[in-house]
Structure formats: structure tokens, C-alpha cells
Amino acid sequence: MAEELKTTEEKEVKEVKAEGETDVDASEKKKKSKKIKRQILKGRAVVKCTYNNTVISLADVNGNVLAWSTSGLMGFKGAKKATPYAATQVVANVAEKVQKYGLKELEVFVKGVGSGREASIRALSNNGFDLTSIKDETPVPHNGCRPKKPRRI
């Protein structure tokens, strides 16, 4: 596929040269237009805090993920991944990634029971986002798993 593109580009350049134009004119015709950056003002933040890790993803209103990060990705190992400090570092990383989109307003959806819940929400507001709503979506078991059988002594 790439070879086919090269051969067609070479043919186009040869055709242009054949018409009596210089190399400078041929390069001007082949310039590509700049890619338009999409500006997104409103979005969603999904914060998942478990006992072992913190995952934060920022998406637009339709749910298309713009950026995500975890405390493991930031370099925290073991029990340090679930700390509130790690959660603030993850939020700072995600905010830096999403800066090019111009995201301002966020709806926050929090899942899990980890220690980074409040710290991540506080860090989102400190990083320049306007939090329009905060919703807790922690899954609640409806009687859960079957318990272990009692010990007979």
C-alpha cells in the first residue's frame, strides 16, 4: 500500500515537471492542510477507586474517551497505588493530557470504595475543571456471594 502511494506521488511530480514548473512549485501543490483540533467544553470524568488502584478517564458527553491514566501507569507500586496522593498525581496527568481539547466543565462519576475517591475529586477541581455534578455509581451487591460454610469445632 505504501509502495503504491510512493509511485503515484512520483508520477504526479514527474507530470508537474513535464509541464515546465520547478521543484519548488511542485512541493507547494502537495502541502497538506492542518488537522483541525476539536474543542470540547463539556465532558465526563469516571473515577474508579479500588483497594489496589485508581483509574481516571475523561470523555466527552457522548462517552468518547479523550484521556485516561492510572496510578500504576504513574509509577506507583504495590500498596502506594491506592493512596490519595497517587490519585492526585493521576488527575494531574490526565488534566495535562486533556489540556489540548480545552475541556472546562465535568460531570464526575465515582465508582469503588478506595481511599482516593475524595482526593481525586478535590484534585479535579484544583486543576481548573468546573464540576457540574458528582454522582456515586458504586455497585452494591444484592446479597452478594454465597458465604463460606461455618467451621465445626
Describe the structure.
The chain is of the alpha/beta class and 153 residues long. The longest helix has 17 residues, at 2-18. The chain has a domain at 42-136: Nucleotidyltransferase, domain 5. It has a 5-stranded mixed sheet, covered by helices on one side. The N and C termini lie far apart (73 Å). The chain has helices spanning 2-18, 23-29, 84-98, 117-126; strands at 42-49, 54-60, 65-70, 105-111, 130-136. 32% of the residues lie in helices and 23% in strands. The protein has 4 helices and 5 strands. The protein is elongated, with a radius of gyration of 25 Å. The mean pLDDT is 84.
Concise account of the structure shown:
The protein has helices spanning 2-18, 23-29, 84-98, 117-126, and strands spanning 42-49, 54-60, 65-70, 105-111, 130-136.
